[in-house]
Amino acid sequence: MSKEKDVSLHWLDYTIFGLSIGLSLSTGVYHAIKSRIILRRGDRTAKEEYLMGGRQLPPLPVALSLLTTFLSGILMLGVPAEMFQRGAQIWLNFVIGVSSSIVTCYIFLPVFHKMKSTCLHEYFIHRYNSILIRRLFSLLFLLFTIVYMSVVLYAPSVALSPVLQINKWWLVLIFGCTTTLYTCLGGLKAVVWTDSLQAVIMYTGVFTLIYKGLSHPRVGGLERVLNIAWESGRVSELVRMDWRIDQYNSLWINLFSGTIVWLASFGVNQLAIQRYASLPSLKTAQDIIIYTLAPFTVLCSIVAFVGFIALAYFFNCNPLETGEITKSDHITIIFARDILQPTPGLFGLYVSCIMSATLSTLSSGMNSMAAAIYEDFLKNSLDGKITDTGATRLNKLIVLLCGLTSTALAFLAEVLGGSLRICISVMGAMSGPMVAIFVLALFFPKSGSKSCLISFFLSNLFCLIICIANFIQDPYHDLFLPTNTTMEGCDGNSNFTIRMMPNYNAHYGDPSTLYISRISTYSYAGVGFVLMIAIGWVTSLFEKSDHSVEKIRHLTFAGRNEPWPDAHHEFDHFLKEGDRKMSLFS
Q1: Nearest to residue 364, comparing CAs of 399, 390, 396?
Q2: Which residues have C-beta within 8 Å of that of residue 46, sequence separation ≥ 6?
Q3: How far apart are CA 461 and CA 125, in angstroms?
Q4: Could you say which protein family the record assigns here (predicted)?
């Protein structure tokens, strides 16, 4: 630009940012105190109160918590940037989560809710009599969560650092320590109630940005936004019908693999199941899922639509071409700064929106990781050796360690490249086998522990290989849709470099790279899912059944509405025997 922008923020912006942090901390302290008062009545255990909210959480905050948990700060920044750069495919990839929620509601949840377990992974004990499968899956879940949390913590800190004029590492520490503290103090209740407040901040922040953005003269209103999105080819990307998987994305990849990815979040993920189990009945949990479908669709849509508004704002002066930014992940935040900064306090509100999305994901991850670590690895070896109060304190210590670990790993996230890219890759690579292992158990009752282990290992290995190949070769780094940067659009400034399209069709990747590296990162979940189901089904044909089909009927889709047997003591006995046999994993 010909004249220097004033990028300084008003004191009110910093005040609102600070108040939102204080609100999260005070919520944790409040629920820690409230839980102590409840426990004095003696009608529930301290550990159940801490990890499960006493299984009596109100439906509305649980619904709001589910809305915010999987929409992290990365997605709040990365999804609009992807809409700006490559079109509307990413929107479909997110709203398809509605179908995953419906599948969860009527297929997975009826089986999982009646277990009345703190940790979802206990299912594998009942279904396969295998503590090994339980712990292997738990390790995958812990790896999935800790990697995601570290990137979720790092990426927004980097994006917010230049506009807040606060060092990114200080922001990493502020976000990480704040979340660790209130999650450690208040448990699941603090997480859920804080998520509820953060959901309000998120909706308010995004709607404010959309309203102010559409009102800005440089954007030119809703009609210009839609015209540019259509004429630049970004809307037509939505209906790309090619079936092949060696492309960046397509309609079919989004419909199938997108459903699998969101099932890994909403259907077979400890973060979500722990919330469903905290509700008093299956019917309440199912109602919550149905009631959140419309708000989830709206939230995903308005977050994505910010990318099209930013496109209209920057269409004639692309900051990636003027050198104002070097990473597309930062487009959203500088757009928000330009639009909201003139009104004191509004940019602080949007920063709080990004922070809320970040803290919500982190707190949910810490709480669920603590439940998984304690229930899957420690509980049975400590049975009879630790009091309920001692178990609660141990869980708080685990939350603290998980928080500190994710914060420390965030300092290593700088080498991972684009934040959305690494999230899509890692989540996709792990999601397929994570969903397939439950589908195999639910729909293939003759499958045993051996076919489950073999297929789970091989599918994860293949997904790991293609994920690494894609990360190393990055075959889609030249893929972008054009803007129209001009001197007039940049107020007479000619200091820009127009990005040139490569001499190959970038949508299908760099042809000089390996085929497996060009397999769409958005298709990883579908590839892993199909591979595990295929291997699991074939190997089960040669496997001698280690269980009676009728005995496990209540754990399958066919028996999803059948009551839970009374003989829990048989499984408790197996857990103790399994711990002795599997001491290597203790």
Answers
A1: 399
A2: 35, 39, 388, 389, 391, 392
A3: 24
A4: Belongs to the sodium:solute symporter (SSF) (TC 2.A.21) family.
Confidence check: pLDDT of 1 > 70? no
Nearest CA to 188 out of 61, 41, 282 is that of 61
What is the average pLDDT across 355-364? 87
Q: Name the band, by pLDDT with cuts 50, 70 and 90, for residue 5.
A: low
Rounded alpha-carbon distances, angstroms, from residue 334 to 44, 73, 78, 314: 49, 15, 13, 10
Has residue 418 got a pLDDT over 60?
no
With 0-12 / 13-18 / 19 or more C-beta atoms within 10 angstroms meaning exposed / middle / buried, residue 400 is: middle
pTM: 0.88
Integer CA distances (angstroms), 368 to 38, 184, 275, in order: 22, 12, 10
d(CA 219, CA 311): 8
- Give residue 220's Cα distance to chain centre: 34
Cα dihedral across residues 284, 290, 292, 295: positive or negative: negative
Give the span between the Cα atoms of 502 and 487, in whole angstroms: 24
Q: How confident is the model at residue 308 (pLDDT cuts 50, 70, 90)?
A: very high
In a 3-state reduction of DSSP, which class is residue 374? helix
